[in-house]
Amino acid sequence: MKWNRFTLKTKTEAEDIVICTLAEVGIEGVEIQDKQPLTDEDKAQMFVDIMPEGPADDGIAYLNFYLEEDADTEAILKDVRAALEDLRSFVDIGEATITESQTEDKDWINNWKQYFHQFYVDDILIVPSWEEVKEEDKDKMILHIDPGTAFGTGMHETTQLVIRQLKKFVKPGDELLDVGTGSGILGIVALKLGAGHVVGTDLDPCAVPAVSENKEANDIREESFDMMIGNIIDDKAVQDQVGYEKYDIVTANILADVLVPLTPVIVAQMKKGAYYITSGILDVKEDVVVQAVKDAGLTLVEVTHQGEWVSVTARKD
Ligand SMILES: C[S@@+](CC[C@H](N)C(=O)[O-])C[C@H]1O[C@@H](n2cnc3c(N)ncnc32)[C@H](O)[C@@H]1O
């Protein structure tokens, strides 16, 4: 199959919101080319700690996307341009020029699907949208998740560590806060395990369409999973919106360097007796997070390991 490649020139600070806008008009799998150094949030999202120094940031981002050769390119680009003009009224997206740069002859856009197949996390089956559930698996707890712009397919050890803790601690009707919700996978598992309601927060605006798609794919009622974009660590408005002494469980699968400042903040959001399930901690940082939960006045409940990753669970007594 032939694909036409288009390159959209924008500003680095606008690239996330532009990618979300492209997703809203049906364009996914966008490649980013920029010279921006990774922020702590990027590192938290990508699970990398050290990156070599790159060239200086010039503020420009090139976003490459692909359309099938027989797609109605004119109509799609018209929708893209209209969506970008709407966006321009509240975000500086720079030139936002689109150029056709290349034709590729391979089905690369679908090629990666050969690397993502259904798999089990213990007794929970995670199935991408392009695969059928086998007859013998239909009685299992099934999660429909596709790899997308937000982190969280269930393949990563850190996600699996939290899923196992959710299976131990979720009670019917629980109110759950998921900090760094990404694809929403942890909230969706919690709801399937009987939780009553989930609030997800993330810094990444792409988490909003990702959670929305995954709710729909998993028949989650609209009102049972709310999303908020912002940084609960230092944004009082986000803390107020999330609410205080409200949650039976808080999950946070983020790097240790984010969990340390998050922990003292999150205690105020938890009910008495609530559980705090953290993950995303490299084994060398285990002691730092254990100390942070103790310093925040929480009681250490359990530390679990998978590969080089650690999950720390604590309770507010
Ligand atoms: C490793 S992913 C976890 C995704 C999903 N919850 C899972 O368990 O698979 C970490 C997520 O945390 C988000 N994140 C990083 N720092 C954050 C912060 N201070 N507040 C909210 N989200 C944050 C990232 O954008 C990313 O989506």
From TrEMBL:
Q: In the UniProt record, does the keyword Acyltransferase occur?
A: no
Provide any one GO MF term from the record.
methyltransferase activity
InterPro entries documented for this protein: Ribosomal_L11_MeTrfase_PrmA, Ribosomal_PrmA_MeTrfase, SAM-dependent_MTases_sf
Kindly report the protein's main subcellular placement as a broad class: cytoplasm
Q: Which organism is it from?
A: Blautia aquisgranensis
Top-level enzyme category: transferase
What name has this protein been given in UniProt? Ribosomal protein L11 methyltransferase
Superkingdom as given in the UniProt entry: Bacteria
Q: Which reaction does it catalyse?
A: L-lysyl-[protein] + 3 S-adenosyl-L-methionine = N(6),N(6),N(6)-trimethyl-L-lysyl-[protein] + 3 S-adenosyl-L-homocysteine + 3 H(+)
* BP GO terms, sorted: methylation
Task of the protein? Methylates ribosomal protein L11.
